[in-house]
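Box S1 | Example of a co-folding query
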Amino acid sequence: MKVPLLDLKAQYATIKDEVLSAVSEVLDTQMCIGGPKVAELEEKVAAISDCKFAVGASSGTDAILNSLMSLDIGKGDEVITTPFTFFATVGCISRTGAKPVFVDIDPRTFNINTELVASAVTKRTKAIMPVHLYGQMADMDPIMEIAKKHNLAVIEDAAQSITSTYKGRKAGSVGTVGCFSFFPSKNLGGVGDGGMIVTNDEQLYNRLFIMRNHGSKPKYYHKYVGGNFRLDPMQAAVLLVKLPHLDEWSEGRRRNAAYYDEKFKGTVVEIPYISPDCVTIYNQYCIRVPKRDELLAHLKKNNIGCEIYYPVPMHLQECFAFLGHKKGDFPEAEKAANEIIAIPIYPELTDEMKDCVVKAVFEMLN
Ligand SMILES: *Cc1c(COP(=O)(O)O)cnc(C)c1O
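Box S1 (continued) | Returned holo structure for pyridoxal-5'-phosphate
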């Protein structure tokens, strides 16, 4: 039996008519930039994130870049983050001219180890950027405490974690800003690129809003150097159709996770640890196993979708060699990169499919 890592066609089949009519509505108006769909999505995403404001973005990456630029982070500044993340987190810091400063991860959650953050703060530190990896929020209280003490901004990379919670608080609502991605494989995915920034800071919201349109206000008068960071109305139309299903889809992922948890408990397979402070949305279900690469090959051979998120930590990336890091600098991130593997978790999985995944994993490991 073939079990893909993600099956977007299965999801699309359930909403096809609504999506087609929403897209057709946008096409009929020929309002191809901005417009009511973008504004409506911003309002709704702000609301589900318990935030006052939201600004659409052309991608999750551009949501992060706009946030950094709007916080005036650049050359000479430092931003503390995790080396165990998708490239965009660190790529954006680097593109502003600021220096990414890594601290290792907590091996249980794969998120930034907050005990190591304080000692990474210097006079040049401007912000902390925790990443809520795989759908689970980072331990935000200690991060906010350090940020408050040193007057730092906190940018939540919540690309994988829209609507997940930490002590009952929504992703994106705890820090200064939160950044979401609508990349198709995220829990709320468009039919192309898209993203959003949420905040409760009105002044920052105004800046983000201007920056997404080349920093102009009014048009052709540029107070800042911004960019084209706009969310496409076609994406907004599709996302508005999907948004009401988000909770039920995340619930489906949690049900699948519980199913796997039960099967893997007490075996060599290390199941994801979810902190009692958190409700995760399981953008990924990542297990830790011995002989990971053999398992990867075995699953692929048996048509079971799987992926390594992420095989090379950021401090060991060629493009960041100038930071001067070496193997061994962040041992937990390196260990995770060698031991982790994501298996299918999408909500439309059947029990038969999950059993097939479990069987294939045990074939290899027992
Ligand atoms: C997906 C992702 C991004 C980037 O989002 P895009 O929409 O692909 O630009 C940033 N950070 C993390 C952690 C992500 O998973």
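The radius of gyration is 20 Å. The chain is about 40% helix and 15% strand.
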